[in-house]
Amino acid sequence: MAWKQWAASKRLKPGDGRELQRFRWWQLPLRSLFWLRLPGADGEARLYAVDVRHWARWDTSRIRAHLFLDGRHVAESKLPAVFPVDGGVIEVAMSDYGVKRCHYRPRDGQPRQLTPDPASAEGRRARFGVRHPGLSRAIGIGSVLLLVIGVGLNLVQLAEPLSRIPPVMQRVGTFESPVHLPIWLNVALGLGAVLASMERSLRLRYSPLLDAAGR
Question: Contact at 8 Å (CB) between 34 and 121?
């Protein structure tokens, strides 16, 4: 952990003091914004914001997280980012489908997720979960099932051509897949896995086994 924090500190740059821009509806697929209110050293509450602009991937291939304090830009970092704040750090990380982690880790106590801006895609998904908990839970379960089925079937089908590689065949023999799906169904399962990972990213849910394998 100490090495990770040292590496993160090398990616950290001071802010330029600019004002935080309000979240606009047309930024839904291109921006994530999270909030955290903490008591400062003087006892007064301080409001932090983490702003992630996804479109930076098209520009420099390195997305940056920006930290704002009481509406002013105080720091930025390439991802994964670790921002020192009052009483701990804010950790930010991203997957291919969206933000996978934006948590406050206090020096003592358990990490907790920052609150997404109500206008952001993450905030709208969180509000949907509060208003429709049963349906939200069903969608979450469906996302997991899509990933398990899609990844599982693809791995079973991929095992057959891999087993025919001479060095593999000599060691373990050949494997005949019991499943041979048409191309259109494989494509549909792949798209379903992508949508499932995108839905999970809106809730900051990430599993290296499911979401990374579902790419």
Answer: no
